[in-house]
């Protein structure tokens, strides 16, 4: 993520002491390193890919940078929500960052990603900026959806991020539609349609999978299994919690979603498969530390020991940190300093977002219709222009 | 005797022109058609709706049962009036003017245009648009190899291939979702619901994703989708296959709704809907697919927000759409015999309402009857009543009468089904009561 490094470099210009630390954290070293994933992959009707993943120091450091930024952003969003600057629903992704960064490492911006409402980090991964994120969360007009979408409606058309949807399950047919359009225009890209273990029980998923498999659409269905559908554990909601097998005729792969490299390997494998053979289901075994959303404490249906246990054993950032340290790509101090920089960067973005203006009242009527038909609502005698919907 | 009354249209505040709405999406206008001499008046003994092109500037649309009526679209000032440089289609439908004819003789021979049935007109519009833009594709149940359950897409799959005319499984929710996802990337899909009632399964997709995505993404995505299908009460099809979905969809922000009623407006509206960048829901009616009419050979696109003046009059404004138009015209004949002069407007655009045409009519007649097929509660008529009351209250001499279907599931038995919908006799009675 050159963008992030450039930004941090710019922000740090006055602080010459720490410049060297950040610069060191962005190496252009691409000597391959082979790492074994934490767990082997499990396949359903398919031969799983190998456990050994090729990566580079550059990539590992970028994983760390991106995940640290995402983690910091989500924690900051938590405080903003409690300070009542973010209202409504706020679903946080901390703990699941590896899925986003691993996926980005395997694909291009021409491939499409679509997800439900836990979209802040995926938006960031697709190239969104911190300012756009916080401005949108606080409902300012500089947000990515001009303040009219909110936490659940982040979109970035130019880098293939299709949202951001409030009603879970509905994004999967949309994702298959994106794959349909990719097949229609024959452009050798794929679509990752993400959903959770809760939404995995939606009927429209199976309908969409049926159609994708029927017409060999390049759709990859990614189930981010964080084991809880809001307050309901997966064993209480699904007869068959092996979500990667749910595709029946469609092959599936179970991946350790807390290991960014495993995710990267799986996504790369899935992309190759989808372009040749049609849809495949990926189940990312992951975990969210926060509750379902900010109004859910997250402790009524699971124990704090469980949460802290996972944080100790499987935290994605810690894993990458260990890899970086064991391969001597950076020192402990440098990583800590970088996290401090990230914190500062996020705070600055929040400060800037707080100063952004709220949308104008005329924006209430903009973007209801696309300019063209039905855009002007006249008064009865056609002389009085009641509202213009540009 | 021709009655041609161009309505004053203050589109630009200074120009005085015939009622003509520019279509910003239309291609540049083709050269003006050749003027022809008006052919002799004609009469027909067949019970069909037919269109005769009397001259380049005049189109005649007639419905005939026992006596003959002529409804002439006054197109006169299209060529003479407004500046045509801002991309308008050559033939936009303008207001129709009616005149009564006695003693007419038939001469169907050398009439320009071609005769076809409504479903063929839909197919023609669809095919022309698919030819014109490779991004246009159709999805629905049995639209491809079977040719469409009402034959609207017949012959298209062999011509354009399976990917452009896609046979979907019975999964309305997800194939509507798929179409919306495809539209987000730039394709222009047309979703066919085999019966509008089946689209209730896709309500989430239509409301949340189709209607709202343009807004919630801050304008990043447009959804140029057309959702079409037959609805309405048919011939004893049963409750679940006789639904009027326009009343459920009308509140969804961000969508447009139109209803076609004749082959002429079916083709025009289909083309306009496909070219529109907004999501459009096109309501067809199960019983109107076999209507025959003569439509122009030249390409034409109608305006999606415009209402159609079917028969001008002085005493009362009757607003209607889709199949009820024919019940109203039947009632109109009886009313004319009894000495009333109803003005009949086919509102066509269900969302947004064409308050301009409707308003002018109300100002002229001061009495309104709405005849619709929706249920009494929460139908299009209910919204239209509220809208007219809000905007034109001062011009009304009497409360608006809204005749709608009964708030019951449509029964199977023929007689019961007849009583569910509005019949011409009821319309006549309502007008007589209103005009007392």
From TrEMBL, chain A:
Q: Kind of enzyme, top EC level?
A: oxidoreductase
Necessary cofactors: thiamine diphosphate
Q: Could you tell me which Pfam families the record lists for this protein?
A: E1_dh
Q: What InterPro entries does this protein's entry cite?
A: DH_E1, PDH_E1_Alpha_Subunit, Pyrv_DH_E1_asu_subgrp-y, THDP-binding
Q: Where is the Dehydrogenase E1 component domain?
A: 65-359
Assigned keywords, A-Z: Oxidoreductase, Pyruvate, Thiamine pyrophosphate
- Enumerate the catalysed reactions: N(6)-[(R)-lipoyl]-L-lysyl-[protein] + pyruvate + H(+) = N(6)-[(R)-S(8)-acetyldihydrolipoyl]-L-lysyl-[protein] + CO2
Q: Does the keyword Oxidoreductase apply?
A: yes
Q: What is its EC number?
A: 1.2.4.1
- UniProt xrefs under NCBIfam families: PDH_E1_alph_y
Record note on quaternary structure = Tetramer of 2 alpha and 2 beta subunits.
Q: What does this protein do?
A: The pyruvate dehydrogenase complex catalyzes the overall conversion of pyruvate to acetyl-CoA and CO(2). It contains multiple copies of three enzymatic components: pyruvate dehydrogenase (E1), dihydrolipoamide acetyltransferase (E2) and lipoamide dehydrogenase (E3).
- Spell out the protein name for this chain: Pyruvate dehydrogenase E1 component subunit alpha
Q: What is the organism lineage in this UniProt record? A: Eukaryota, Viridiplantae, Streptophyta, Embryophyta, Tracheophyta
TrEMBL record, chain B:
Q: Which Pfam families match?
A: Transket_pyr, Transketolase_C
| E.C. designation(s) | 1.2.4.1
Q: Which SMART domains match?
A: Transket_pyr
Q: Which Gene3D superfamilies match?
A: 3.40.50.920, 3.40.50.970
Q: List compositional bias (Pro residues) regions by residue number.
A: 25-40
The Transketolase-like pyrimidine-binding domain sits at: 116-291
Renumbered residue ranges of the record's region Disordered: 13-40
Has keyword Oxidoreductase? yes
Which cofactor names does the annotation list? thiamine diphosphate
Judged by the first EC level, this protein's enzyme class is: oxidoreductase
**Catalysed reactions, semicolon-separated:** N(6)-[(R)-lipoyl]-L-lysyl-[protein] + pyruvate + H(+) = N(6)-[(R)-S(8)-acetyldihydrolipoyl]-L-lysyl-[protein] + CO2
Tell me if rRNA processing is a UniProt keyword of this record. Answer: no
Which function does this protein serve?
A: The pyruvate dehydrogenase complex catalyzes the overall conversion of pyruvate to acetyl-CoA and CO(2). It contains multiple copies of three enzymatic components: pyruvate dehydrogenase (E1), dihydrolipoamide acetyltransferase (E2) and lipoamide dehydrogenase (E3).
**What is the protein name for this chain?**
pyruvate dehydrogenase (acetyl-transferring)
Tell me the organism. Answer: Rehmannia glutinosa (Chinese foxglove)
Taxonomic lineage from the root: Eukaryota, Viridiplantae, Streptophyta, Embryophyta, Tracheophyta
